[in-house]
Amino acid sequence: MIAQGQPLLVQDVIDARPLGRFQCIAIGLCILVAVLDGFDTQTIGMLAPSIAASLGVPVKSFGPAFSAGLIGMLLGAVTLGPLADRYGRKTMIVFSCVLFGSLSLATAHVTTLEQLFVLRLLTGVGLGGALPNAIALASEYAPQRYARTTVTTLMCGMPLGAVLGGVVSAALLPRAGWQSVFIVGGVLPLAVAVLIALVMPESARFLLARGRDMKQLAHIMRRIAPELRGDERYRSADTTARTTGVPIRLLFTEGRALGTVLLWIPYFLNLVVLYFIVSWMPAVLLGAHQPASAGIAAISAFSVGGVLSSVVQGALMNRLGARRVLLCELLACAALMLVLGTWPEDYALVVAASFAIGAVVQGAQAGFNALAAEFYPTHMRATGVGCAVGIGRIGSISGPVLGGMLLAWNWSPGAIFMAGIVPAMIAAVAVAANRSK
Q1: Is 264 exposed, middle or buried (CB count within 10 Å of its CB: 0-12, 13-18, 19+)?
Q2: CA distances from 171 to 1, 139, 262, 303 (A)
Q3: What is the CA radius of gyration of the chain?
Q4: Transmembrane segments in this chain: where (predicted)?
Q5: Which residues have a Cβ under 8 Å from the Cβ of 293 and sit 6 or more positions away?
């Protein structure tokens, strides 16, 4: 029973009720945004040989185009995330989807590598802004007891999108060419943007924090709690909620500095490992005299492991404790990299280890996203998540670069895999030292 006659805490109203249809729709749309992110991020690598042949350039010259997309994601995460704390999560999600959808359609018409570079950079900005805002909005509509499960389930959308990208590419590439895949990758986010604009509610906590449109807030709260009359007053537990902007420096004030740094370190290093594996696993296995099919099987197993672990990550963190689960996953990653480094020529073992690494690395990444959404208060949540995602994007850029350097230095396949132990162990130390969660 909700008390009458006094201002209500928005989060108390949400926490007091089960996860209803209204909230599930909002969270489901956020998961769709994550699927679109995974689709776009992975398909460019699959299409590179066909694009190279069409443009008359060698595949090895695609390195800058790959990096451009990741750099754009970094820029989008650290700019569109903070803007959402001023203009709204829903507004920036719609803007981001329209941006990267339109640019994906434009990419289908490139005729030079330079055009591809520019469009991938700008597409990355849209992608970089979509995910942190989807995480922030989904976490704010979930009751506290489901917050971690909600965010980690949302993150399974990225490997699902990668799988979808592979299916679409395999179906369309032989029949309609690489351009058709970019057209699909453009139409889908534009359609989702329209759906979000029409159906998705703005974050109730954001509306309260900004003191905007109290009628809209009351309508949203009645959708969540139908027993409310509609004339209730609301307040936030966050006493600093009403600000005109959220400078990044606030992530390091009021006792948040150490927690921010200890979140960023494993966020960065875990994505170094993740993108190193995604980018270079096939090439490293070829160096270990494995067939080309081994690389495809390993990456597929890696993605499937990520989907399954993301679904259960939140429940594990709630039951066993966030620090314990994340620490075990990072230590398991180090042990599995040792297995790959010791027996890189064993096909069955490589595929099995790839599945397990996909589970622990992508599960841990989903967990870090959940912690970022928990750690920062409402008025700066999109800024905090956006900056964490931005730091992670630097890791996603660094992983492929470091892998390429190790290959250029003629490291053996075993030594390259064992190099992955170092970032996993440093990340584990940072998680062990973080007492904020």
Answers
A1: buried
A2: 54, 35, 43, 19
A3: 22
A4: 20-39, 59-80, 92-111, 117-139, 151-172, 178-200, 257-280, 292-312, 324-343, 349-372, 384-409, 415-433
A5: none
Helix (H) or strand (E) run with residue 235 in it: strand 234-235
Q: How far apart are CA 253 and CA 158, in angstroms?
A: 32
Contacts of 328 (CB under 8 A, 6+ apart): none
The answer to whether 158 touches 38, Cβ cutoff 8 Å, is: yes
Q: How far apart are CA 45 and CA 299, in angstroms?
A: 12
- Contacts of residue 74, defined as CB under 8 A and 6 or more positions apart, other chains included, come to 124, 128, 390, 393, 394, 397
Angle between helices 21-55 and 63-87 (to 10 degrees): 150
What domains are defined for the chain? Answer: 8-235 (1.20.1250.20), 248-433 (1.20.1250.20)
Q: Which residues does residue 234 pair with via DSSP β-bridges, in sequence order?
A: 8
- Is residue 390 within 8 Å of 74, Cβ to Cβ? yes
For 168-219, how does the pLDDT look when each residue is reduced to its tens digit (9 = 90+)? Answer: 887 888 888 889 989 999 999 999 999 999 988 887 777 877 766 778 888 8
Q: Residue 235 forms beta bridges with which residues?
A: 9
Give this prediction's pTM: 0.76
Predicted confidence at residue 236, as pLDDT, reads 65
Give 267-280 pLDDT, tens digit per residue.
Answer: 999 999 988 887 67
CB 388 within 8 A of CB 366: no
pLDDT category at 241 given cuts 50, 70, 90 is very low
DSSP run (H or E) holding 8 = strand 8-9
What gap in Å lies between CA 214 and CA 121, rounded to an integer? Answer: 38
Helix (H) or strand (E) holding 341: helix 322-342
Using one digit for the tens of pLDDT, what is the confidence trace for 362-413?
Answer: 999 989 988 888 888 877 777 888 788 888 878 888 887 787 788 778 888 8
The two three-digit tokens of residue 88, written as one number: 């709204």
Q: CA 344 → CA 294, 301, 347, 354, distances in Å?
A: 11, 16, 8, 11
Most confidently modeled range among 42-46, 276-280, 307-311, 381-385: 307-311
Q: Which helix (H) or strand (E) holds 9?
A: strand 8-9
Q: Is residue 244's pLDDT more than 50? A: no
